[in-house]
Every structure is written in structure tokens, then in C-alpha cells.
Write a structure and sequence with these properties.
By secondary structure, the chain is α+β, with helices and mostly antiparallel strands. It is built from 14 helices and 21 strands. The strands form four sheets. The protein has a nine-stranded antiparallel β-sheet. Strands 7, 12, 15, 18, 19 and 20 form a six-stranded antiparallel β-sheet that branches. Strands 3-4-5-6 form a four-stranded antiparallel β-sheet, with no helix packed on it. It is elongated and about 105 Å long.
Length: 636
């Protein structure tokens, strides 16, 4: 009877528990939510399509909505009541919604769209540099849409009169007059004016840079006989939960902001649907607020030198068509007193576009925006994630390919931990070399576990072997693995970034599948089927080869479990981003070479072919045993 080393048994049990734990967590936290989210997306899209087709006036100019009306919203700065946004009564297709109002075109190197003269709102933004799919001819990503489009999402701002006064101020239904250039560009700001007929002239100047930053300056001139007090107000309005929401724990998507000394705030859409939820902060100074998606964001940036009141919430009592809620990120600032014959002004910035690291950091520095870098979700381990991103970015600029940059990062990481990996592999090589001696001890003391363990520990000590040293390479690799996963998941630079051959998007899974012979068979596997691409297979094979260099387990069942682990991880990682799988496979190849070299240097006979033959023979014996049992059962 063959006995087992207790330490090896513990290691085996730990490995199995960890493997099962990873698979369960993956299913609970990712695979399950992803499938449910996909079903929800399909349901919402079908619902929106049905509403667009059956709603009165569909395909025509929509009936006027209530818009944003002052005096019925939430308490704001100094007791001011901020406007409420009425939900659209009719949703039409986006082109019909755009044609319903008078607009001024918007065109920059990064975005195109228009400014709606009704309300002076920014409600039409398309990102020119980003497609829905990797194909260069695919439709461009739409960020902002008008209030009556299928997915309303826009920014609006104006003045609110002081409580108890009847000063007429522009609102969401106000139609502004445009002056100057017929198109808003980085070189040509847009000037809007409106008079209230009571001695107040409102002027709005909208500027935009070459990327994603709008600057909005509002001025009011008072020619009446009385002083007026007005409060600047701004809001980003979003109707309905985004249908392309990832809903994945590794990254926040929803409402977000840094509200002065109150610090960083993030709220999921789902939690905002609970009554009494949301965040309202008074007298914050410095910060920003808005919405964040996986790759895109929109944020209001108040004057950093003045206090403001902020609110992030969803008025759950006023759902729109289909019962979908709407969400608000809004703020008001301190009142501006405009004396007779005088003027008053306010300024804000609006960020609306792709969450590019260099742009976000640049805006934070240029505008002095408090912690604007948090628009990008670096996670708790930002001290690993951020440096890894900047290293990848530097290597990308050096090589011109993010896939090659990932390979280079892997080499750098291996070099940084080369010493520790060497120590680990040396210990494993010594254990493999001493296996005959260890087996003798197990047989000699097979009936005395305490004595067996004592002599094994003496052997480890005399040969200066650490039985746990083999775990070091894996433990070192885990933080880098998850940090790289985070970077690949959140970084827009990785979106649609090609490698070579069939990998045209490093942030998406390998598109090939073993089950249609990698495209040779004339059918496509369904999305729910666990497709295993070429790179996951390479990862699994290299992982299995590396495990063959490790000391064999004394118990065949233990060894069989370890032999099957690469298969489990192959299926597990098949749905991960291709860039991550490429990293793991390349890391396995480097580790395989390093471990092989060290074992040969330690005088260990390494026979990978023999190990492969032994594994194949063991698999045949196992299969034969199962078949024999089945035949006996059927015969009985």
C-alpha cells in the first residue's frame, strides 16, 4: 500500500479548492450575470423597438414634451428649488428626434453632433474616432441623444430665480437665438442670446476643444430698475438603464462624482431605484459629477473655487415609457446678484467622450479639477494597475502593437521576479530528484505517519528544500494577472486593439472555436456555448507541459487531478480577453524554458515525452476501467 505525504495531500486539497472556488466565483460573478444581462438587453431592445414602431407619431416629429420646468424639483443651494425633468411621453427614432428642433452643427476632430437651440442643451454627440465594431466602416459610437430619442442622455444648464421671486429665466423650452459661426468648432465658439422681456438679457457662449471638453459661459445683463439674484444650475439627464451595461463587479458603471471634502461617490443604477436612495451634498467645493460607462463618461465640472450643492439620484415616482426610470446628476452654486445696469456671470465645463487616460489627467491638471483621474476605475489595487498601464502604453508607443507590448511586459515581469522563480524551480528540481529517496521513506514508515513526516522533514532540511516553494511563481503571477485583466477591461486603448492574425480585438475573447475546427466547418457556435479558441488551447497545452516538470504526486488520483487542471483552466479562460490569455500562454512558455533549464542544471532527468506517454497510458487505463464497469453493470 502506498502512503501519501501529508504536506502533498494538503497542497492537492488546497489546489482543488482554489480551482473550484475560481470556477464558482466566475460563474456567480461573471458568467451568470453576463447571461442574465444579455437576456435583459434583448428584452429592452425589443421593447424599445416595439415602442418606436407603435407609438403615435413614430417616425415623425414628436409631440412636445414638458421638458425641464423650474419650481418642481429638489431642494438646491440656499433653498433654491431646482428644475425637474419630465420624462418623454413619446419616443421616436433618433433622426426624427434630431430633426424636431432647430440646431447648430458641432464638429471637432473627436466628435460631431449639434447643439439644440431649444433649451440651449448639448444633446447630440457622436464619437468620430470610435466604432461600434472593430471594422473601420462600422457605425460610430453615440454618446448623447435628444430627450425624445430611444436613449435620451444629455446635459442642460441655465439660471434659477431666487425663492419668492417671479423673475423670468430661460428653461428647457426656451428657444435661444444663435449668433456668429453656423457651426461650433474648436476655432469658432457658439454665442446664444435670449431676452426675458423684463430687462434681462441672457447670453451663453459655448466653446469646445479638439477632444471632449466643453466650456459654457453664461452672462446676464440687467437693464431693469431692480437687482435680481440668480442661481446657476446644471444637470446631466439619462433616461433608462443603458442596454450595453457590462454589470460586472470589476468595474463601476453608473453615477459617479467627487463632491468636495465628501470625497469619491459611485452609485449603481440598481441601487438608485430604491426609495430614499441617492446622494445629496451641500456646500461642496472642488470636484465633479456625472455618469460613467465602461469606456465613455460625461461629467459636469463646476467652478472649483466656489461652493456647490450636488445631487445624484433617480426620481423613481416618475418612470417613462415602458416603466424605465431616469437618473440625474445635478448641481447648483451660490447665487449671483446682478445690480441694475450691471452684469453677472458663471462658467462650467462639461466633459463628454472617451475615457482616455492622458486626456483625463490633462484636464485634471489644466483645470485644477479635484481627483478627476477617478473617472477611470483603476480599482483598489491602483498602485499596481496604473503603473502597469503606463508601462503597457510606453511599450505600445515603442512597438506599435498592444499585443507585442503585452509580450514585452511579460518578459519584464519575469525578469523582475527571476530570482524568486529560480529559487522555486530549484527547490522543485531537488524534490523531483529526491523522489526515489522520499518514496523509500514512505514505504519504510507506511504505518507510522508521524515518523514518516519526521524523516521527510529531515530530508527536506538536509537538502535545503522548501516544499511550499513551488507555490511562489503562481502567487507572484496572480496580482499581475488580475492587474492586467483590469487594464485590459477598463482601458479604452485596448478596445478593438489588434494583435496578429485572427485577433483583431485584444479586449474580446479569442473568436475562433475548437468545436467548428477554428472556422473550417461551415457553422458558427452559439454565444452560450463555451467556445475554446486557439490561444486558450495554447495556454492549456503550455500549462500542462509545465506541470509535467513538477514532481509527480505519489497518489495517481492526485496526479490525475493536476493533469486535468489545465483542461479546466482552458475552458475557464476561453471567455477572457484574448490579451489576457496571450499573456498567460506566453508566461507559461517562458516559465517552461526557465524551469527546464534549471532542472537540467540540477542534474534532473527531464523526459517530457515519457511523461506524455505515461499520462496517455494512465488515461487509457482509467477509460478502460470505466468501460469495464459500464459493461458489467449493463450485463448484470
Amino acid at each position: 500500500m502506498q502512503t501519501q505525504d501529508p504536506q502533498q495531500t494538503k497542497n492537492m486539497i488546497l489546489a482543488v479548492i482554489l480551482s473550484i472556488g475560481v470556477m464558482v466565483l466566475w460563474q456567480v460573478l461573471y458568467a451568470g450575470p453576463q447571461m442574465e444581462q444579455q437576456r435583459e438587453r434583448q428584452r429592452q431592445l425589443a421593447q424599445e423597438q416595439q415602442q418606436t414602431q407603435t407609438a403615435p407619431g413614430a417616425g415623425q416629429t414628436a409631440a412636445p414634451s414638458a421638458g425641464v420646468q423650474p419650481g418642481t424639483g429638489t431642494p438646491g443651494a440656499s433653498g433654491v428649488t431646482t428644475p425637474s425633468v419630465a420624462t418623454p411621453r413619446v419616443l421616436v427614432d433618433r433622426s426624427s428626434a434630431l430633426s424636431a428642433d432647430t440646431r447648430v452643427p458641432l464638429d471637432t476632430p473627436a466628435i460631431r453632433g449639434s447643439i439644440n437651440l431649444k433649451g440651449g442643451r448639448i444633446d447630440d454627440i457622436v464619437l468620430k474616432q470610435y466604432g461600434v465594431a472593430p471594422d473601420a466602416s462600422s457605425d460610430r459610437v453615440v454618446l448623447f441623444s435628444p430627450q425624445t430619442a430611444p436613449k435620451p442622455y444629455f446635459a442642460i444648464n441655465f439660471w434659477v430665480a431666487a425663492p419668492g421671486t417671479n423673475v423670468k429665466t430661460p428653461n428647457a423650452d426656451t428657444v435661444w437665438s444663435a449668433e456668429g459661426s453656423p457651426t461650433l468648432t474648436p476655432a469658432a465658439p457658439l454665442k446664444l442670446t435670449w431676452e426675458n422681456g423684463e430687462g434681462l438679457t441672457f447670453t451663453r457662449t459655448i466653446s469646445v476643444d479638439s477632444d471632449y471638453l466643453f466650456t459654457i459661459e453664461d452672462t446676464v445683463a440687467n437693464t431693469s430698475a431692480n437687482a435680481v439674484v440668480l442661481f446657476p444650475y446644471a444637470r446631466i439627464f439619462r433616461y433608462g438603464i443603458p442596454t450595453d451595461l457590462e454589470n460586472f463587479f470589476i468595474q463601476h458603471e453608473g453615477l459617479i462624482g467627487v463632491l468636495g471634502e465628501n470625497g469619491f461617490t459611485e452609485l449603481d443604477y440598481s441601487e438608485l431605484l430604491e426609495p430614499g436612495s441617492g446622494t445629496k451634498i451641500s456646500n461642496a467645493q472642488g470636484g465633479w459629477l456625472g455618469f460613467t460607462d465602461k469606456y465613455w463618461g460625461a461629467a459636469l465640472i463646476p467652478d472649483q473655487s466656489k461652493p456647490f450643492n450636488a445631487a445624484l439620484y433617480a426620481p423613481v415616482k416618475t418612470p417613462g415609457p415602458g416603466g424605465r426610470p431616469h437618473f440625474h446628476a445635478e448641481y447648483t452654486t451660490e447665487g449671483v446678484t446682478v445690480a441694475p445696469g450691471g452684469t453677472g456671470s458663471t462658467k462650467l465645463n462639461l466633459y463628454a467622450g472617451a475615457k482616455k487616460v492622458d486626456l483625463v489627467n490633462g484636464y485634471e491638471a489644466a483645470l485644477g479639477v479635484r481627483q478627476f483621474e477617478l473617472m477611470i476605475d483603476w480599482g483598489w489595487f491602483y498602485f499596481i494597475t496604473k503603473p502597469l498601464y503606463f508601462l503597457l502604453d510606453w511599450l505600445f508607443k515603442l512597438f506599435g502593437n498592444f499585443g507585442v507590448a503585452i509580450l514585452a511586459v511579460t518578459v519584464i515581469v519575469k525578469a523582475l521576479f527571476f530570482y524568486f522563480a529560480n529559487k522555486s524551480y530549484e527547490s522543485m528540481a531537488k524534490m523531483k530528484k529526491l523522489q526515489p529517496e522520499m518514496e523509500k521513506i514512505r514505504k519504510r514508515y507506511e504505518n507510522d505517519k508521524m515518523e514518516q513526516q519526521k524523516h521527510l522533514m529531515e530530508l527536506y532540511k538536509s537538502e535545503k528544500i522548501n516544499p511550499l516553494a513551488g507555490c511562489l511563481p503562481v502567487l507572484v503571477q496572480i496580482p499581475v494577472f488580475f492587474a492586467l485583466y483590469k487594464v485590459l477591461f477598463i482601458s479604452i486603448d485596448m478596445r478593438h486593439a489588434p494583435f496578429f492574425g485572427w485577433i483583431q480585438d485584444l479586449s474580446a475573447p479569442d473568436p475562433t472555436s475548437l468545436f467548428n475546427l477554428f472556422g473550417l466547418l461551415p457553422y458558427t457556435m452559439p454565444d452560450w456555448f463555451p467556445a475554446v479558441g486557439i490561444w486558450p488551447l495554447i495556454m492549456g497545452i503550455t500549462m500542462w507541459l509545465q506541470m509535467q516538470l513538477n514532481p509527480q504526486q505519489p497518489d495517481p488520483m492526485q496526479q490525475a487531478i493536476f493533469n486535468w487542471m489545465p483542461v479546466v483552466f482552458t475552458f475557464l479562460l476561453a471567455s477572457f480577453p484574448a490579451g489576457l490569455v496571450i499573456y498567460w500562454a506566453w508566461n507559461n512558455i517562458l516559465s517552461l524554458g526557465q524551469q527546464y533549464f534549471i532542472m537540467k542544471r540540477q542534474g534532473v532527468d527531464v523526459h517530457l515525452l515519457d511523461n506524455i506517454k505515461r499520462t496517455g497510458a494512465a488515461a487509457k487505463r482509467t477509460a478502460g476501467g470505466i468501460s469495464s464497469k459500464v459493461r458489467k453493470k449493463e450485463g448484470g
